[in-house]
Amino acid sequence: MIKDIATPVxxxxxxxKYGFSFKKSLGQNFLIEPxxxxxxxxxxxxxxxxxxxxxxxxxxxxTEHLARRAKKVVAxxxxxxxxxxxxxxxxxxxxxxxxxxxxxxxxxxxxxxxxFSDCEEIMVVANLPYYVTTPIIMKLLEEKLPLKxxxxxxxxxxxxRIAAKPSTKEYGSLSIAVQYYTEAKTVMTVPKTVFVPxxxxxxxxxxxxxxxxxxxxxxxxxxxxxxxxxxxxxRRKTILNNLVHFLANGKELKQNIEETLTSVxxxxxxxxxxxxxxxxxxxxxxxxxxxx
Length: 292
Ligand code: SAM
Prior knowledge:
By secondary structure, the chain is of the alpha/beta class. It contains twelve helices and nine strands. The protein has helices at 8-18, 34-43, 61-69, 82-89, 108-115, 133-142, 156-162, 173-181, 221-231, 239-246, 251-263, 277-291, and strands at 30-31, 50-55, 72-76, 96-99, 121-127, 149-155, 182-190, 195-196, 203-210. The strands form two sheets. The chain has a seven-stranded mixed beta sheet with strand order 4-3-2-5-6-9-7, sandwiched between helices. A two-stranded antiparallel ribbon has the order 1-8. The radius of gyration is 22 Å and the shape is elongated. The site of S-adenosylmethionine (SAM) has 23 residues, from β1 and α3. S-adenosylmethionine binds at residues 26-31, 55-58, 61-62, 76-79, 82, 102-104, 127, 129, 132.
């Protein structure tokens, strides 16, 4: 059995062999604890029929755990310096393809078509670069890729916001954007000590199971998300005031918005953070009818 990449000793040896220096700007915090890696793969329920997309393989710590259990792994890595290292560290695994691209620019849908036609389900599994956590998750969801789910390590604070319920301080437009497409659950918190270098913040693993249909049906998706964002624009303001500010100013208009809120039985004095996703859907449909 080959020794895991993700042990402090082997990681150090690989980094020294290649004279690799971490780039903070690329969110390079590598995992050095094999148990955490197995837990990530467990939570993703990866099997021999799973195609896995990994984002940011680093020196291959998570990639090798995925390769041992999945049918195939396709990993997007932005840092060109890591490509020859990955070629070396992952040489025992024939089911891994590394793509040297920024995942935010990459055609992920094409990669899925090219590599996963013989897989039964597709999961995204990653220890994400923390500077772009939200754009990456939103890209994967908004492109409506044929994913079963996403299991990723990220900042605990972001995981808390994603999985938050209404009327909590963490609940906001990010919670609604992600829960619209997925069932979200934080499955594990992870201490800083399992990374080199250690990040400044605590981490967590979140599991997002993609819904067959969004949790609510809305008349216009982009208008719905605009209303959600506008409702949280100033968290301390009432929903009525945030909407008046968003939909332009004027007395007459304020009255129209008040009437629309009443028609869907939402008190305009409430704050955005108290509205459920279903209430936002009702509200945005009524405003869409009234104002478009
Ligand atoms: N998977 C490795 C591990 O767990 O040890 C490394 C994880 S490290 C937190 C994040 C990785 O993402 C780094 O290898 C970094 O170079 C890469 N990365 C950063 N931005 C990226 C982007 N936009 N697209 C693809 N990879 C990116």
